[in-house]
């Protein structure tokens, strides 16, 4: 299958899984979830769904267990939406990218705050010139 078709299929799976989680899942463990991407295998028999979960590590773990428990339900919804010979078997992987972005932003803000609090008169240019 061409890479363009795989990308379109990945986008369709992402939309269907996102919508299903948002509107149809009733599992209390599955909350604060964002589907960030989908990687479809070249033979279209499997798809890795990348998810970001806001919360503590325990909440993330519970959410991942909830998603694994609902895998059959989610696969059925995907199978209803896409028209392929095989309905991809879904697997879920926690995407740490967003968490790392927030951590990097926090560190940069701390550095900025520290530097602005430690300015010397030489650095600000407020010092009067000597005669």
TrEMBL record:
<dbReference type="Pfam" id="PF02033">
    <property type="entry name" value="RBFA"/>
</dbReference>
<keyword id="KW-0690">Ribosome biogenesis</keyword>
<dbReference type="GO" id="GO:0030490">
    <property type="term" value="P:maturation of SSU-rRNA"/>
</dbReference>
<feature type="compositionally biased region" description="Acidic residues">
    <location>
        <begin position="120"/>
        <end position="131"/>
    </location>
</feature>
<dbReference type="InterPro" id="IPR023799">
    <property type="entry name" value="RbfA_dom_sf"/>
</dbReference>
<keyword id="KW-0963">Cytoplasm</keyword>
<dbReference type="InterPro" id="IPR015946">
    <property type="entry name" value="KH_dom-like_a/b"/>
</dbReference>
<comment type="similarity">
    <text>Belongs to the RbfA family.</text>
</comment>
<protein>
    <recommendedName>
        <fullName>Ribosome-binding factor A</fullName>
    </recommendedName>
</protein>
<feature type="region of interest" description="Disordered">
    <location>
        <begin position="109"/>
        <end position="131"/>
    </location>
</feature>
<comment type="subunit">
    <text>Monomer. Binds 30S ribosomal subunits, but not 50S ribosomal subunits or 70S ribosomes.</text>
</comment>
<dbReference type="GO" id="GO:0005829">
    <property type="term" value="C:cytosol"/>
</dbReference>
<dbReference type="GO" id="GO:0043024">
    <property type="term" value="F:ribosomal small subunit binding"/>
</dbReference>
<comment type="function">
    <text>One of several proteins that assist in the late maturation steps of the functional core of the 30S ribosomal subunit. Associates with free 30S ribosomal subunits (but not with 30S subunits that are part of 70S ribosomes or polysomes). Required for efficient processing of 16S rRNA. May interact with the 5'-terminal helix region of 16S rRNA.</text>
</comment>
<dbReference type="InterPro" id="IPR000238">
    <property type="entry name" value="RbfA"/>
</dbReference>
């Amino acid at each position: 299958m061409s890479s363009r078709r795989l990308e379109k299929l990945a986008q369709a799976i992402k939309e269907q899984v996102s919508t299903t989680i948002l509107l149809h899942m009733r599992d209390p463990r599955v909350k604060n979830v964002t589907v960030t991407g989908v990687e479809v295998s070249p033979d279209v028999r499997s798809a890795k769904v990348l998810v970001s979960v806001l919360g503590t590590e325990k909440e993330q773990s519970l959410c991942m267990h909830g998603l694994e428990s609902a895998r059959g339900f989610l696969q059925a919804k995907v199978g209803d939406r896409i028209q392929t010979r095989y309905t991809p078997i879904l697997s879920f992987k926690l995407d740490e990218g967003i968490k790392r972005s927030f951590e990097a932003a926090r560190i940069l803000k701390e550095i900025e705050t520290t530097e602005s609090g430690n300015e010397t008169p030489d650095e600000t240019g407020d010092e009067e010139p000597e005669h």
